[in-house]
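Progress narrative, work stream C.
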Amino acid sequence: MNRQRSSIGFIVAGAIALLVIAIASFYWFFAKSPLNLIASTGQPGATIFVSKLSPVMVSLLTNPDRLQALEREEELSKLKTSLFAKSGIDYKQDVQPWLGDEITLAITTLDIDRDQENGQQPGYLLALATKQPEKSREFVELLFSKRALAGANLAVEQYKGVKLISDNSQPEQDSLAGAVVGKGFVLFANDPKVLRDAINNVQAPDLNLTSSPEYQKATKEIPKGSLAVAFLNLPIVAKWQGLELPEQLYNSQIISLALNSKGLLAETTFLTSSEITPPSAPLSKPVGALQYIPASAGLAISGSNLSNLGDSDLTKLWRQATATLYGSGEDVVSRLAKPLADVQKDWGINLPEDIFSWVQGEYAIALLPEKDQTTPHWIFVVEKSEDVEQGVAHLDAIASSNGLSINPLSIDQQKISAWTELTTATKKSDAKDRASFSIETKVRGLHTTLGNYEVFTSDLETMDEILTAKDNSIIDNPNFQDSIAAIPLPNQGYVYLDWTKSRNFLERQVPILKLVEVLGKPFFNNLRSLTVSSYGTDRRSLKGGVFFQLH
């Protein structure tokens, strides 16, 4: 188990640096940033060192110094300085002169020595493109000489024409191995065996990721101008997490990051060997149901056809993804969609069976968080049809069976049906110290017909906001329009999250989010909203994107 406890500070620091630098590209720019300053190499060149069996590879495809032109508060400079501070390395003097246009980090193997008795020790490989091989060799020599002065025992070997330098640090200290390979890359790893395997992958091309048919298919999905790319081998990622997935539909995933004048677009494609079908026909414009969602909404989900959602490939992807990351998707769903989960519990209904099954046209779902309330208000809008009328009658029957009354109301001459519950309230009389009772009517939900849509809400205040703010809907909101403009058409609809309005609610439901915010504070401080959508027409892949709109 000692090997599992051994730290790999330099490699981990490199991983964090790569992620933070990628995040830096999200927000260190102005509305009129000189985006032409950032050039992309297109595809990672370090894949020749990475095994086909690597679970994860992440690459920054531009020199980090180019991102520095977009800085606001010199955070990137501080990051690079602090990264090398403990090693006694000066970034500007020792690294900047030779660093090229790619930084790649990969987990190359789940266990370096394949010995389960001493614990699982993943292999980490950090590849830095070099534009001056001699200067980069001087850097590697300098780095290890400083480690030797700090007490590390160095070992030097020639392996297939490449000089490998490593130290024999104790388990509780950092261990590191490094080499300059040819004229292209400087490699660092947490074990010399990882470097030897990387060299073998170059000399036996059928072993490396470049020759993988799955990776070759995935790279065709990388848009031009991408700043960063990540590739995941999903079955091996699941194995890494110690999970046996009940359903393995998707084999791999590729993620790309690209800037535009409003923010960052992260596109992802999931690849499968099976033929898949979209959950509904693609939409060429936003659904009309959004006209009844107020601009004050913190979360809005829109699309068409919920009737087959449970068996769709999108749902299967969600199950596989959440199981891979969390072991189970149930807790994640219940936390993020707590208001809807509460409706199911209070009403004794099953959303897919009792509601989603009759929604075959357009729909929109929204949450309206309030600062002083832990549970936000909700809105559900669905396009009218014969099935919807039958569905409403079914909900009325469920309400009656739960002891609720169905009462007609009017707001500004708009006829509304309300599901209400009578409750009693008690208070002591001042005169005779006797309890007095009053009857109160509590609204459990409302619905009304507006145009060609049936609108459901959680309370009277929300219904009133919909009726009195017809010219202030989310579909007319400039922030929403800017966000969906970055998403290709046609698509399957949108999931829109206003970060400013939903932040407090999300932090209560997902406490770990506060830790994530601390690590990426500048990014979250500048985040205005994020929009998720699914699009693409390939029958053997599922493509989508997340657009991060920034201040």
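Work stream C, second folded protein:
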Amino acid sequence: MQIKQQIGVVFNLDKCLGCNTCTLACKNIWTNREGAEYMFWNNVETKPGIGYPKEWENQDKYRGGWQRREGKGAPSLRVSSRFKEMMNLFYNPVMPQMEDYYGKGPFTFTYEDLHSEEPTKYSQPVARPKSMITGEEDIAIEYGVNWEDNAAGTHEEGTGSRDYNFTDMTPEARRVYLKFRDSFMLYLPRICNHCLNPACVGACPSGAAYKREEDGIVLIDQDRCRAWRYCISGCPYKKTYYNWRTGKMEKCLLCYPRIEVGKPPACFQACPGRIRYMGPLLYDLDRVAETANAPDDELVERHRDIILDPFDPEVIETARKQGISDAWLEACKRSPVYRMVKEWEIALPLHPEFRTLPSLFYIPPESPVSTALEDENGLYNMTDGENVLPSLGEFRIPIQYLARLLAAGNEEQVEKALLRQLAVRRFRRSERVEGKADEAVLKEVGLSVEDARAMHRLLALAHYHERFVVVPTRREKTASAPYIERGYAGFKEMTPTSSPKRRRFFHGQKPGVGS
């Protein structure tokens, strides 16, 4: 058992406001500069829709992520084999183009015209769209990062009809859900998933992409990067970007300078809906390849299995022998991510069928009910029989859709997560409103009273220190540690060096997992 450390993240989709405050916080700090105009390390998409860039979920088009090899111990890169990739190093056709991000390119407006032009009595001054790259004015605005915002793409003639998550539905069912009467929407905030088996690292020919030993954050070494852009093709979430000014690849770095001093990333801190949670995890590196190669319907469960129990004496002893600090072990016991992903099983990975084993998990939304009937008093009755809260069958967002988005089509995993959330709501209502706690609803979904109260606390009332459990970096134990890393960064095996900086910029992944 090779125990590794990983920063885990959970987003609660039930509470996302779609306000994009997280996007602005990230943009103003990291990508507010020349060459990064089209980059959104954090963006909030509205589903149904094709997202940013266009159709990023469609791996028949982009060939991102990994593909299962039946009878083998590990999956293989979907984009190409190592040999074919090296033979076609200067030709990489399967990656999004600028029009997939922004049509004619990122744009601003000629705001100076509002002040410099002489006003006339026939018209007011107008700010025209202008390219942020070429400076060309009056460009056509054809697409953008929030093009589908607030259900703008939710109709059959628009982008909604090309949503990958309708794959498991018939064309007739898809048309029904895109009609106004039965339409639905949800917000999907996205950042880099900092995966346990990152395809961007496996696809990088120069070894520039790597996974940090101390916290599992996936980064790109700017000194080693040669902009082959295979990390874009390899990443199924399309969260690596090419900086046209510097000629280097860039991506979300989870605000690691903030994490190193015990603070959460800027997008987490700025979120007004408090949907974001962060906490450390322990996982078994020796089982990553086997887990990533599991059948689709087993991926979520197997992913949870490789996350280790921080209360297990054997895990604690082994982790200490492998150099994991007591501070990290204690933080893992308080991790909100561990509780939501492993204990309560209410958080699910985004598109586990891509087989990257993401460290970002989502709590599926309890969507509004699909119908509301007017009773004899002229009031809308939202009840399900004797229950005030609805059943899963009344939810507007189809379970099939959420299953394709968050569970590789496994509807049981989504139903379990939603039923447990509903059970906690029913239990708390019976306890606080009716005056008699109904523990039977918890037993039906496999929760205890302590679980229900802890879930209610964490999802609704949690303070800052409960939502964010961040272990500050101990520089005396990382930057000057002896050379213990093993394995590969991308395609290239790295050699020992005496430079502390080089040791930190090293990916310790085993051969066959990220290669």
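The longest strand covers residues 3-12. No further action is required on this item.
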